[in-house]
Design brief:
single chain, 303 residues, mainly alpha, 2 domains, 12 helices, 62% helix, 0% strand
Length: 303
Amino acid sequence: MTESTLSSAIFYLFGTIIILSLIESYFSYKHDQKHYESKDTLTTVYLMSVNFLVNVVMKSGTFLLLDFVYRRYRLFIIPNVFIYWTVLVLLQDFLYWLLHATGHYIRLFWAVHVTHHSSEYFNLTTGFRSSVFEPMYRLFFFVPLSLLGFSAIHILLAYYVTQIYGNLVHTQTIGKLHPIIEYIFVTPSHHRVHHASNPRYLDKNMGMLLILWDRMFGTFQEELEEDKVRYGLVKELENRGPVNIIFHEFIAMAQDMKKTDVLADKLKYMLYAPGWSHDGNSQTSKDLQRQLEAEENRACLES
């Protein structure tokens, strides 16, 4: 497979998603479902365009690094085509889960990833509201694949195919699927949870293709009828301009770092979970979930 073939495949696959987005938005407006909002969609288009430019700048470097490691340092060769592609997709999906988890549990990376969670709407276009600067470090998570004997072009193909699947689960149009599918794969129901700002749902369901990683590592949460999903961020943005959406968390992190003169605490503001503070005046997602659990237990005892 050549790079031009990969580019063509990606073009047609993303083109299909755009067409589906237009169809979904039409039915949303027709049935007054309010899943789309014009200004929000235009903001997504802007953020997608900026991310595309960053991707273009990083594309050659990403390919060259992965190709260099593959040609110079690969440890294995997998001759069986079926095993090769099965292992590649599984490992790539796990490494994406790790990348995604990093974007939720380390504030510096959350400052990048938060862009993707900034919309208060949830539809097929939300998948295009990309983490603008993620391409600058994403490639380092996939270097192990080159070491394990997977070519650069195949790594990128596996990533974009699973990325396209990940785009398709950004929808409220589809409810819960068959229990077997819900158990193995990331579904729209799972990903609605991921984009929720409800305390119960924070930092959950971070898989792209398989939900099994979340089940294995304790980050799975089912969508519950009694806890209706609220989309967006825990702390709503007053300024919803696209530039502020990209940089607001970096600014907030810098302001928090100024609150202490202790270097270790300054570093913790960057490397600990979002919501951590040196004086305990703010809460992480785990703090909010423990508080919710305590409240529910108390209510249960009183009833």
